[in-house]
TrEMBL record, chain A:
GO CC annotation terms, alphabetical: plasma membrane
Main location: membrane
Limits of the ABC transmembrane type-2 domain: 133-369
Organism: Thiocapsa imhoffii
Protein name: ABC transmembrane type-2 domain-containing protein
Keyword RNA-binding part of the UniProt annotation: no
Assigned keywords, A-Z: Cell membrane, Membrane, Transmembrane, Transmembrane helix, Transport
Bilayer-spanning residue ranges: 21-40, 79-101, 176-199, 225-247, 254-279, 285-306, 318-337, 343-361
GO MF terms, alphabetically ordered: ABC-type transporter activity
InterPro entries tied to this protein: ABC-2_transporter_component, ABC2_TM, ABC2_TM_bact-type
Entry keyword annotation includes Chaperone: no
Family: Belongs to the ABC-2 integral membrane protein family.
Topology within the bilayer: Multi-pass membrane protein
Annotated PANTHER family: MEMBRANE COMPONENT OF ABC TRANSPORTER YHHJ-RELATED, MULTIDRUG ABC TRANSPORTER PERMEASE YBHS-RELATED
From TrEMBL, chain B:
Transmembrane residue ranges: 21-41, 179-202, 223-250, 256-277, 289-307, 350-368
Domain of life, per lineage: Bacteria
Example GO molecular function: ABC-type transporter activity
Organism: Thiocapsa imhoffii
Protein name in UniProt: Antibiotic ABC transporter permease
Keyword Nucleotide-binding on entry: no
UniProtKB/TrEMBL annotation, chain C:
Keyword hit for Thylakoid: no
Ranges where the ABC transporter domain occurs: 9-242, 362-591
MF (Gene Ontology): ATP binding; ATP hydrolysis activity
Signal peptide: none
CDD domains reported in the protein's UniProt record: ABC_DR_subfamily_A (cd03230)
Ranges where the record places region Disordered: 298-360
Protein name in the entry: ABC transporter ATP-binding protein
Amino acid sequence: MNRQRLRGLIRKEFLQVLRDPSAIAIAFVLPVILLLLFGYGVSLDAREVPIAVVIDSPTPQTASFVAGLDYSPYFAPRYVATAAAASEALMAGQVSGILWLRGDFDRLLLTGRTAPIGVWLNAVDANHATLLRGYLEGVWQDWMLIQAETAGLALAMPVVAEPRIWFNPAVRSRDFLVPGLIAVIMTLIGALLTALVIAREWERGTMEALMASPVTMGEILLGKLIPYFLLGMGGLLLSVAMAVWLFQVPLVGSFWLLVLCSALFLLVALGMGLLISTLAKNQFVAGQVAIIVTFLPAFILSGFIFDIRSMPEAVQIITHLVAARFYVAILQTLFLAGNVWPLILTNAAALLLMMLIFLGITRAKSRKRLD
Amino acid sequence: MWARIFALVIKEFLAILRDKASRMVLIGPPVIQLMVFGYAASFDLEHIPYAVLDQDGGAAARELVARFAGSPNFTEVARLTHQGQIAPLIDNREVLLVLRLDANFSRDLLATHAGNGPARVQVLIDGRNSNTASLALNDVTSILMRFNRDWAARHGQRGPPAELVVHAWFNPNLQSRWFIVPGIVALLTLVVTLLVTGLSVAREREMGTFDQLLVTPLRPHEILIGKAVPGFVIGLLEAGFIVLMAVLWFQVPFVGSPLALLLGLSLFLLAAIGIGLMISSLAVTQQQGLLGVFLFLVPAIILSGFATPIANMPEAVQALTYLNPMRYVLIIVRGVFLEGSTIRMLIPQYWPLALMALFSMGAATWLFRHRMG
Amino acid sequence: MSAKTELALVLAGVDKQFRQGKRSTQALTQLSVQVQRGRITGLMGPDGAGKTTLMRLAAALLHPDAGEVQVLGLDTRTQASLIQQQIGYMPQRFGLYEELSLRENLDLYADLQGLPDAERAARCAELLRLTALSPFAARRAGDLSGGMKQKLGLACTLLRAPTLLLLDEPTVGVDPISRRELWSIIQTLHGQGATVLVSTAYLDEAERCDDIILLDQGRCLAQQPPAAFTAPLAGHCWRVRHAGMHRRALQESLLTRPGVRDATLQAEGVRVLLAENPPQPAPDEDWQPQPPRFEDAFISLLSPPSTPGQPAPAMSTPSRDQRASDPVPRSSAVTVDGGMAPAPRAGSTQPPAATSSSEPVIEVQNLRRSFGSFEAVKDISFSVTRGEVFGLLGANGAGKTTTFRMLCGLLPASSGVLRVAGVDVRQATATARARIGYVAQKFALYGNLSTQQNLHFFASAYGLRGARRQARLAWAEQEFALTDYLGTNTGALPLGFKQRLALACALMHEPRILFLDEPTSGVDPLARRAFWRRINHLAESGVTIMVTTHFMDEAEYCDHLVLMSRGEVLAFGSPQAIRAQATTPDHPEPSMEDAFVQLIQTHESDSRQAA
């Protein structure tokens, strides 16, 4: 490894980046825009869900139940006269659900029988529907507690759950989605920065001139890796800063540990880009491969949004091929739970292994020969 | 004119399909991704790993704990003996939740006869994925509700004064796969279409063949049609394949009109192709083309309602989604699959797609000739 | 010093094969050549002879399949890095980083070659002076002209004063002025004791070498000084003039005579290479003996002797690769030749310009085009009449390509009148395009489609159908002898066939005007001759040809020329008229190249003074 040659290569790469603003755009503008869009746009928390409420005969009892709905931040009740009108609104997608308190609600309640509360949910989005059901059950439970106290009715709930949601007591989905987004965005950036750079040197004929000089292949690869690594780290710090200050995600763990793990992940992402680029030698194919292997796997298989624990065994095994999976686990833990060493060390070790594999194959596949 | 366009279409097909690598790219990944994502993209928790710290040990506590062990949704990982064991298990993600019954549990439970109580079960949940946490908590509550009802009946207590009777329309078992798999139809169709069209003009420009095309009497709109048809045909075939797989393999019900779906997918494909060609002809180099594809693809998917509901987004971002063709096609696909939507019901989704197709194709045609080195 | 170290490069029994999928090509076969220290050795040969492969073997970028390659006494297989520290290698497409400035490119290669910082400033200054690039040190490499890029590439390889310099076609695509400058740099280095191995497609450059290696189909035909090549041909070269006959017609007539191995246009007459002495002049012909040139030797060594009565080289004088693989008998090529332009030959004793109507087919008036603040084409006007071969010459960056692209409708003009085939290009582009054919400088057909698929596509793109389509397709296959390659992907075709296919596609619809952008760049002399005969026939059949070229001998084939410099028309007229403009008492008979260099240099120094 010759320091002067490496210095020359790194300076060249930086100059190219400076002159062709697209790389700067990828490293700095892309994360900001994506994080802004997604940080605000991606949320699993339902708020003020429109729900049609049908009350056949209004009484103080029904009013007390409905007050709970009005009070809940999750619902925006719309009062509808008839069940038929409510069902129409549900079909048209104007409301997500129907709550129907029938005419005999009062009577059943007061005679000590169990009054049914009819609920119809649009379950096309099953997750959304399940969450809504949970929120409704919460409203219902609160109502019963109040009933027990005020009306002196016997408490009908021998056992109640006392949830303690660790790490995210407010159950803000943004707190886990934003760290995950950082992983998805860094995957894109790492691959985009490097996926074409080696293929481009081949297509433009600069590779042949480089190879005929005393420079070694290791130096050429390092000369690519170092500048884009620095750029990528810049983008990463920007993302972390936005997560902490703009989106108010608490960073419980150590900042330096986060930087270290991110550096490791960035090397994996860059290594994957370099490998694609080295194997393809052709920008068109490299581009297509980069589109396929980066975004969708990082989006769906990383645990960023779909919990890996809900996947079938076989798919869980496949997720181990996706580097973002390990990084998402580290990020969610560092941000929300803190320095949980056993978890971080195992995931970091996996990242290290992937990095060695990607860079190792890249090194082995780039020989200083043209045939 | 039609003979010229036909020749162009043939040429584009050959250019895409003669190369083994690009044939593979179009066939392999969509099939693999359909299978993997079809299973992976799900919110449904099955085997939630949990641990129990039963500090009470009474018969009632044991009965309650046994209900969790008997539920298919829960898998017990550890039985704990003291409080200090809880944190490491949750921190390291070995369990999603811990049920803690303290020493007073049985006493409190029996006291409910006297109108005291209730007995409390502490549910300590890993909230790193808050969605998972909420869903798991829902499952815990359901089990507790059933336990309560049985307990009340057995001990002659009065049941709850009122009860939620929940009906889930269109998806009675609340399987999120029914929601996600139709979404994958749109998702993969978009990716394939952009792969076919997104770099095609930029590549011809870099190879010099685009000049050769421009000196022939072919007009820009003919070139556009020539480039659009293969993307359309390939996209439609792949979409058809994925729809079949969704119905036959993933057993997602298909209750609507196939015609409504065909119309929706066709309009969506046209819009996607137009956008792909627009990106492609705007780009001078393939690198810019690739960047453009990503810049469109990523927001188009994340802000589409594919995984997270559009309704949860802030107003401004929601307004932005009206520019996203994915938004409309997802409504169409899910509507046709699950809700039995008809062409008439989907008109509000069709016309924005048609408008986008018209605009993007027009822009691409104009750019063919006006975007030059 | 031992005899061995006297040799800078030794190839002993080298075999090299390339495999691409199932196809494999033998690039070099049992090749043994040596390059002596301190000499300029030229590497010549037709396309596909293995020149680039040899260069890459010498740069240790390829390993031989069999045999040995020794560079400066070191083996390329085991000591590649030691070799690469001592040689300078300039690939055919020297990869400059276009986003970087000239200076930054130099700095990069100084770092890569380990030039100590202390020596750098002095060495860079010296090279900038040598290449006369100092004024442009801050300019982006991408904004340099083609000639300057080549000089910068050369400077980059020279930073550490290499012991052995390998230059792979450094003068391709470079205008005559830059070409002269490059050679004067090479000669300066040679004076400083460097060993140079240079490959080139310009045969006149052979005379500047000490030694020539002539390759053909991966084998060495001969290695000797240039004089040894030309010596046997003394007395075989003549210049023929005919008072009443147009030069091209005279050339055609001479080519059909027995014993004539080559006939090219030169100055006022036709230069002829005879297989045997003495000449048998026809009436009214004036035969003057000429000294033989390397080009004559090249033709006589590489072109098979003709049988009496057959034209040599024939229409489809094969590039070498065709002879290896194309079983089409030569007689069939002759009938094709006759079939192509049967009628005009009778009338071809007169200049074609006179036979055709004088109505202009291309009319350019006050044409301008600017890119931002830069005016690439400044107010030019000229016109071209039907059936002419019209040449557009100029230095790199003179605005030729911009003009060309505007004429083809690929680039909108900023202002001015542009009429092609009677149609205003700025108004009715599609109508104009149906009447023109265009062959791009770079091979620009669909590489992963087969030859036949490309032909079919372009036939349809030009709106041919029915019987006419069938006839034209059959014509293309026949005329360009493509039958054997119909199923081959065009990306894998030999260079000569790519060029033929490109021409076939451009002629599919029988255009009235054919645009050729540097059609012969990087093409070997044999293929170029065949190509120009084809062009001449086309012109005689009434097709107007518009061509750009850097080969000044090819400019002689044109009926009229426009010489451009810095976006302006510098000279317009017949080759004779242009040469006449450059005639001075010192230079009573300038060649086209002399005229080009002189006119442009005068103009540029004038405009520099004016500015």
